[in-house]
Amino acid sequence: MSRVPMTPDELKAADRARIIHPYLPGSVSERVVMTTGSGCRLTDADGRSYLDATGGLWLAQIGHGREEVARAAYEQMARLEYFTSFWEFSNDRAIELATKLTSIAPEGLGHVYFTSGGSEGNEAAIKMARYYHHRRGESSRTWILARHKAYHGIGYGGGSATGFPVYHEGFAPMMPHVSHLTPPWPYRSELYGGEDPCDFLIAELEQRIAEIGAGNIAAMIGEPIMGVGGMLVPPADYWPRVREVLDRHGILLILDEVVTAYGRVGTWFAAQHFGVTPDIIVTAKGITSGYIPLGALLVGDHVAEQLLADHGFPMGYTYNGHPVSAAVALENLDIIEREGLLARATEIGGLLHRELEAQLGDLPVVGEIRSVGMMLAVELVADRTTREPLPMPQPLLPDVIRRETGVIVRDCAHSLVLSPALVMTDAEAKEAVTAMRQVLERVQPSGELRN
């Protein structure tokens, strides 16, 4: 049966009638229906062009519309579209991808556990941490340390570790035995009572461990750079000092690199940027640049030894090691390598930061500009002296920027954030910042927007 294409209006009407969107109330009627993409550009059903400065949801490392990735998927589907990876079964593409991932991972992370995405990955990581201690005869180690303003996905384990009350409201009771710590946010010095931020955070970590009891704690989970929290970049010595404390107490470290891995910060993994080796790294998003769902946990050999004993690790997903996803990931990683996109992330990220400083640095509502590689944030304030957060403008600033300029950015925790594809051009970087300037120069400390 032939399919009759819908008109733009029909698409929007069907969307409103049928699809439940994350974070979109039914009272909002606007729909932007994307139909094509190339590089950092998107086109909607009405024919309007956009500059994607968000990389989708922080994941389009190689940009939109790469035909070589589509060919990799097609060729793999023609050979083998799917078979289970449970028990003794495997497939050649999953094996090749696991070999590739362990070759670029920090030393000692020699095993891979595949998932379909970040939320699944964090669920698996939390279970792994608890199971690791259980297999070693320490079943009392069930507590998970996390941080306020953290985001670890939408499952019950990762969702409980997430440090935003809005993600818990209406879903309680959440998973027990989760304790949240103060986030590393040096710009908000009031959080630390005048102390050095890193000294404060390490002392708090030590105190919390003492309160709960080291023998009751399985792991600490954290994003190397807190994305949804507003691109919060910790002090350079934060993660090495956290690692030292956890090691002393036998507590595992899980780095949630769903956003930061695969070149986003200019290295394969943010763990390498900060000079720390965790016990487990959770990845997804940039592993395929969003062309197809896939996630992968990089697991320390000492952890894997416990998981593989006796009957093995007793949990699995239907799409563990999906061959088409693995084939797409391999092509994606090859593109990142052969096009030098790790270095490009540092280069274009530096240009973006300089442009933000030059074009936005003098605006009264801009409090701080921070970045690592292609993760950038502009924190907005009502007063630069007191650093009072800017009241949430209505309509939201990303909506105004998109409607007026065609540039797509995102807001996170009183900050506008950028996470473009690593293939963004110099001209596109300047275009994105100019669009932000066009709107932000009209924002008042009250949050109102001048016409």
Low-confidence stretches: none
Count of distinct strands? 16
How many individual helices? 14
The description of the largest β-sheet is: 7 strands, mixed
Instruction: Give the overall silhouette.
Output: globular
- Whole-number average pLDDT? 97
- Kindly report the oligomeric state of this protein: single chain
- How far apart are the termini? 51 Å
Strand order of the largest sheet: 4-10-9-8-7-5-6
Radius of gyration: 22 Å
Structural class: alpha/beta
User: What is the strand content?
Assistant: 15-25%
Element pattern in H and E:
HEEEHHHEHEHEHEHEHEEHHHEEEHEEEH
Helix content: 25-40%
Describe this structure in words.
- The structure is a single chain.
- With 451 residues, the chain is an alpha/beta fold.
- The chain has 14 helices and 16 strands.
- Helix 9 (270-274) links the parallel strand 8 (252-256) and strand 9.
- Helix 4 (92-104) packs parallel to helix 11 and helix 12 runs parallel beside helix 14 (426-440).
